[in-house]
Amino acid sequence: MHELSIAMSIVELAEEEAARRGVQIEAVHLKLGALSGVVKDALLSCYEMACDETPLQGSRLIIEELPVIIFCTTCQAQHPLNSIQLFCCPKCGTPSDLIVQGKELEVVALEIKECAPNPA
Asked: Which of 20, 22, 26, 96 could staple 70 via S-S, CB 3.0–4.6 A?
């Protein structure tokens, strides 16, 4: 299950940012393309495990799922695919391997809570 190693990497990245900025992470926002090879439910479950006993424990992973969008050279336009099994333009039927969107696995935002400064 490679989702666990991905979740651990996300947690590590967020922990580093939290420590650098002196903040607490409340949520991690992620874009997940349909062709990323990552199962959303497995990643959500693994994220909880990866956060256990870390500063991110109790934080949320918010996933925006992205459809596959291809560029059709015949139509000269971008179109979302009807099925990821058939890489053809849904308008004209021309086969296309020009993927514009759908491979993403990207942390795009962190929701933070400012921590009170420690008195000196």
From this structure: 96
Reading the block at residue 31, the tokens are 């874009």
- Encode pLDDT of 26-84 as tens digits: 999 999 999 999 999 999 999 999 999 999 999 999 999 999 999 999 999 999 998 88
pTM of the model: 0.85
Beta strands across the sheet bearing 69-72: 77-80, 69-72, 99-101
C-beta of residue 57 within 8 angstroms of C-beta of residue 92: no
Closest listed residue to residue 44, CA positions, set 6, 99, 89: 6
| Domain around 72 | 68-101
- Are the beta carbons of 81 and 89 closer than 8 angstroms? no
Show the tokens assigned to 106: 């990207």
**Distance separating alpha carbons of residues 90 and 79, to the nearest angstrom:** 7
Are the C-beta atoms of 62 and 27 separated by less than 8 Å? Answer: yes
> Looking at the 3D structure of the chain, how many domains does it have?
2
